[in-house]
């Protein structure tokens, strides 16, 4: 029997049971759509994370207290970074352009009858250029504010809208932890970073933050939460990291494990990529289970089809059809069901990716590899799970089958 004739007969057999064929395809459709959509969502999340880190500013390094072991085993990180460390880096590391130490805390911020719990950052004037934060109205923190422990504050755009609406907030006073502060500026909208809204924050002089809001908590000086460093250029990042690590080891008299960690943007992106990549694989693996279920459904329906078509198989064998002919026809039926289901599932999966991209900040990323893999796997599943029913049909004794006529 010619291959095209087998395809024609398989197609005709599937069309004669449209509802059953459609329900058989459904598992494959759902499996393919899930795999493609999950891979696309995972890659979109990875792209979003990369864009957010790039938006932080060029050629950045992040110095945080504690080493990797500390960050894994303790809830409260050691207070090992101080303002003097940042000042020493700015003076003594030639590969560094600017240094921006900061103190992070969540505090109660209020204006008149409105109260909210938000992020409060104690910063220096270098924070704005290093992190590419721009002022929309008024001004940012200045050196004179640090020297005077000035009670001034710069508002994130959403906090300004929440407290003042359309009114000009400059010159108004808000309270942070019962300390009255004059509003001197409003930042441009910056958006979210890794799920944290950067526009829901207020910025104080670092010295004011340390002396009047959180207090001095380190015995070695004015403790800071993180030091952000801008290298002179992309080629200087490696040198800057090496020089900073050596300087801090000297300053902290370290002979064993470091009590700090220096991360470059590339390091952080690599960590984020590993996490999002692992999540993508996990989501795709979970979605692939439905492909397996769909394959079992194909096998079940094909077994039912063999039972129902026993007389047809016996008649065809009596008229000269070989075992190979019967085997080919049932295998082709199984592959057609799986392949068509794979194509339909691919279309639905791609549509789902575009829909998610339209209603969320995730980028719409279509992975050709995931499409080829999903369609190929669905066809392979049809072939694999179709073998057993097809062999049963091919090995059917024509005499036994014809007795049922």
TrEMBL record:
Show the coiled coil region(s). none
Where's the MacB-like periplasmic core domain? 21-247
Keyword Transmembrane helix attributed: yes
Residue ranges of every copy of the ABC3 transporter permease C-terminal domain listed in the record: 285-398
Q: Where are the transmembrane segments?
A: 21-41, 279-306, 326-359, 365-388
User: What is its subcellular localisation?
Assistant: Cell membrane
Recorded topology in the membrane: Multi-pass membrane protein
Give a Pfam family name.
MacB_PCD
Asked whether the keyword Iron is assigned, the reply is: no
InterPro entries hit by this protein: ABC3_permease_C, MacB_PCD, Macrolide_Exporter_MacB
Q: Which UniProt keywords apply?
A: Cell membrane, Membrane, Transmembrane, Transmembrane helix
What family, per the record? Belongs to the ABC-4 integral membrane protein family.
Q: Give the protein name, as stated in the record.
A: ABC transporter permease
């Amino acid at each position: 029997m010619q291959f095209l004739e087998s395809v024609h007969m398989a197609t005709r057999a599937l069309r004669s049971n449209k509802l059953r064929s459609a329900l058989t395809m459904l598992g494959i459709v759902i499996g393919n759509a899930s795999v493609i959509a999950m891979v696309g969502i995972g890659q979109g999340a990875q792209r979003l994370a990369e864009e957010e880190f790039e938006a932080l500013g060029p050629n950045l390094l992040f110095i945080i207290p504690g080493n990797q072991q500390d960050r894994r085993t303790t809830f409260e990180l050691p207070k090992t970074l101080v303002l003097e460390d940042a000042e020493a880096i700015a003076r003594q590391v030639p590969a560094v352009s600017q240094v921006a130490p900061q103190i992070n805390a969540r505090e109660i911020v209020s204006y008149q009858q409105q109260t909210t719990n938000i992020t409060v950052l104690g910063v220096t004037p270098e924070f704005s250029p290093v992190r590419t934060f721009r002022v929309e109205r008024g001004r940012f923190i200045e050196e004179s504010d640090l020297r005077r422990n000035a009670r001034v504050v710069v508002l994130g755009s959403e906090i300004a809208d929440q407290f003042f609406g359309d009114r000009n907030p400059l010159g108004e006073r808000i309270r942070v932890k019962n300390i009255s502060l004059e509003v001197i500026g409003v930042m441009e909208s910056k958006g979210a970073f890794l799920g944290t809204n950067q526009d829901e924050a207020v910025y104080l002089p670092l010295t004011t933050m340390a002396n009047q809001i959180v207090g001095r908590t380190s015995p070695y000086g004015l403790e800071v939460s993180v030091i952000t460093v801008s290298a002179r250029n992309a080629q200087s990042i490696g040198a800057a990291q090496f020089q900073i690590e050596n300087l801090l080891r000297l300053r902290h008299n370290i002979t064993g494990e470091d009590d700090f960690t220096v991360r470059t943007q590339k390091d952080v992106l690599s960590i984020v990529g590993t996490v999002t990549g692992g999540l993508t694989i996990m989501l795709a693996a979970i979605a692939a289970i439905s492909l397996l279920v769909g394959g079992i459904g194909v096998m079940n329906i094909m077994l039912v089809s063999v039972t129902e078509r026993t007389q047809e198989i016996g008649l065809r064998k009596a008229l000269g059809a070989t075992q190979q002919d019967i085997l080919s026809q049932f295998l082709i039926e199984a592959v057609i069901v799986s392949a068509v289901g794979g194509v339909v599932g691919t279309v639905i999966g791609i549509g789902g990716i575009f829909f998610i991209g339209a209603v969320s900040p995730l980028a719409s990323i279509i992975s050709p590899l995931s499409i080829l893999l999903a369609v190929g796997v669905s066809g392979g599943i049809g072939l694999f799970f179709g073998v057993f029913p097809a062999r049963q049909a091919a090995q059917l004794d024509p005499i036994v089958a014809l007795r049922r006529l």
